[in-house]
Design goal:
By secondary structure, the chain is an all-alpha fold. The protein has 17 helices and no strands.
Amino acid sequence: MSLNSLGTLYLAQNNLPKAETHLKRVIEMLDGATSSDLTSERYLPTAMDNLAVVYRSQKKFDQSEALYKRAIPIWEKVAGADDPDTATSINNLAALYYYERKYAEAEPLFVRSLAIREKKLGLNHPEVINNANNLILVYRAEKKLAEAEELSKKFASAAGDADADALPILTGAGVDTDEWSKHVQTGREHLKEQRFAEAETELQLAVKEAEKGGVEDRRLAATLFNLGHVYAKQKDYGKAETTYKRSLSICEKVCGDKDKEVLRTQTTLAKLYTEQKKYELAEPLFKHVIAVQEKALGRNHQEVADAMNNLAAMYSEAGRKSESASYEKRAKSIDAKNTKAQ
């Protein structure tokens, strides 16, 4: 097995000291060497990218940044400026900046990596959608809400039904994108097929991978949200509630309590309480979502109507018919106004 392969293996095993040792030896051997073999030429930037991940995991952000900055121009030379491998290195540097809350530095890099991936892989490719979500999060952090909304609309249909319950995600420092994506996608497929034991196993593996990015990694929030669905579908309400709450806590820390994805997670949690007839816990959550959406979107927005319908359904199930009728009437009024406006 080559030194590069050994270094990558140790990294996958989270044996960071050995990974660092082997990858540094690879870089020392290849740095400055010449080769007409394009496959061999890719070993150097690959080793640099992998060592940068090691340094990210060790919180050595300056060293990680320096390696990414060295790797990117090498990728551009040996693979091309528009190659997906080049885009991955650029995306990883952007993710490092985001993790350090250097949003101004992260934004143009996410824009560039998204453009490369979209051109080469197409709008519906998971890497493209994930990259778009990364950029959306940067826009939100920078309070560029119009740009975030525009990009969200562009990729809403691209996400597809299989990802309808997935939160936006961001590459966290130390997270192996390929490994995390593999477990999440497999877990979602198992969930869709109602193979709950397999879904739980895959998503728990994805949680472990996402946790390498730190407690505020949006990958972790997204994975926990999906894992909560696995428990909810099996009516394991205790685990579902705990898992949803953990996902919600991460989202609130990263984006604030008025973020769209925070509201969606609160709605999901409220529906879980409704299913358990814990109406006293569901009601304030539904009302909170309505209040925030009315203020942010306007009283006649369709999402406000949807939120009111959720509350009306809860009241109906709780036997509070008059309150249910009241909210249902308000929702229908909004629906009528929006239909007329079209």
